[in-house]
Specification:
By secondary structure, this protein is an alpha/beta fold. The chain folds into 2 domains: 173 residues, Medium-chain alcohol dehydrogenases, catalytic domain (Quinone Oxidoreductase, Chain A, domain 1, Alpha-Beta Complex); 134 residues, 3-Layer(aba) Sandwich (Rossmann fold), CATH 3.40.50.720. 30% of the residues lie in helices and 25% in strands. Strands 3, 4, 5, 6, 7, 14 and 15 form a 7-stranded mixed β-sheet that branches. Helix 1 packs across helix 13, helix 6 crosses helix 7 and helix 6 packs across helix 12. It binds zinc ion (2 copies). One zinc ion binds next to helix 2.
Length: 338
């Protein structure tokens, strides 16, 4: 079969590799579509993997092989499956830190979504695979994983109806975050540097939009919250500077929420502000199986729109180019059809 293999630091080659063999309880999937995630882009641009690897973990495919004992699915089913499974019992899992579970980090699909076929290990079959119903396209179904990361983040934010949220960055993640926040519902101010992305944010439910480099954000937020300012600032993009600015956007007792790696360099913050204003800084990374189930339900019920986030479809041979488009913000969600 063909697979797009990433060779650190900078090349992705389409190669002929063996079709994975499946064992008891496992499934062989023929990949229909796999989304390029921000973390795939980060892995390539920062050359994080140390050895050749097939990336891609937001995928939908057809069941073409069933190992002995698989009860949950049958041949021909169209599935979406996520790549990591927590143990559910360790110290991390018991504290709700499923994505920090050591077992979670070790589990994966074989070889990855940017390939023609993929082996789903037995524990993934049981915990992170879902049948994609007819009302969802391949593109919509594969958003189960990225949306579930956002679901977990919003759940951890513990917001109340009527709260005011600022979301920085209207890429695909920011646009899903806006829609989840509107389900609470909070008021949402969307920030980005691109006019088209702000327009899309409005169409998908954002109450207000401003350019992310506007000097008026602090005053705008104060005006719309009786002077209190925002309950939360969610960073799906931006750099250290935006993070520092956000101290003037967030209310006393509010939260600064990291949903992206804003910088690989240290950022200076005032510990005094953090302390005196009871500001919480928290992050969220990857989902639990419950978050996946919730995201899948939201997609099936059409509570979150994801089709408008897709800008490109490509073959395996254009994956490397796609990384450049996303980095240059010329593409939003790119979907690879192997
Ligand atoms: Zn992802
Ligand atoms: Zn665990």
């Amino acid at each position: 079969m063909r697979a797009a293999v990433y060779y650190p630091p900078d090349s992705i080659r389409v190669e002929e590799v063996p079709v994975p063999k499946i064992g008891d309880g496992e499934i062989l999937l023929k990949v229909r579509a796999c989304g390029v995630c921000g973390t795939d882009v980060l892995k390539v641009t920062r050359a994080l993997p140390k050895k050749p690897v097939v990336l891609g973990h937001e995928l939908v495919g057809d069941v073409v092989g069933l190992g002995k004992g698989v009860q949950k699915f049958k041949a021909g089913d169209r599935l979406v499956v996520a790549h990591h499974v927590p143990c559910g019992q360790c110290h991390y899992c018991r504290h709700g830190n499923h994505s920090m579970c050591r077992h979670f980090k070790e589990t994966n699909l074989d070889p990855g979504g940017f390939a023609e076929y993929l082996r789903i290990p037995a524990e993934h079959v049981e915990q992170t695979a879902f049948k994609v119903p007819a009302q969802l396209s391949d593109d919509e179904g594969l958003f189960t994983e990225p949306l579930s990361c956002c679901v977990r983040n919003v759940r951890r934010a513990s917001l109340l109806p009527g709260d005011f949220a600022v979301v920085v960055g209207m890429g695909s993640i920011g646009l899903m975050m806006v829609q989840l926040l509107k389900l609470i519902p909070t008021q949402v101010l969307a920030l980005d540097l691109f006019e088209e992305r702000l327009d899309l944010a409005k169409r998908l439910g954002a109450d207000f939009t401003l350019r992310g480099d506007s000097p008026d954000i602090a005053a705008f937020v104060a005006d719309h919250t009786e002077g209190r300012r925002a309950d939360i600032v969610v960073f799906t993009a931006g750099g250290g500077r935006v993070f520092q600015n956000a101290f003037t956007w967030v209310r006393d007792g509010g939260a600064l929420n990291l949903f992206a790696s804003l910088s690989d360099k240290p950022v200076e913050v005032s510990l005094d502000s953090l302390y005196h204003h009871e500001i919480t800084v928290f992050s969220s990374y990857s989902p639990s199986p419950e978050d996946l189930a919730e995201a899948h339900r939201l997609l099936c019920e059409k509570k979150v729109q994801v089709a408008p986030l897709v800008t490109h479809h490509v073959g395996l041979d254009r994956l490397r180019e796609s990384v450049d488009w996303i980095t240059a913000q010329k593409a939003m969600k790119v979907i690879v059809n192997p």
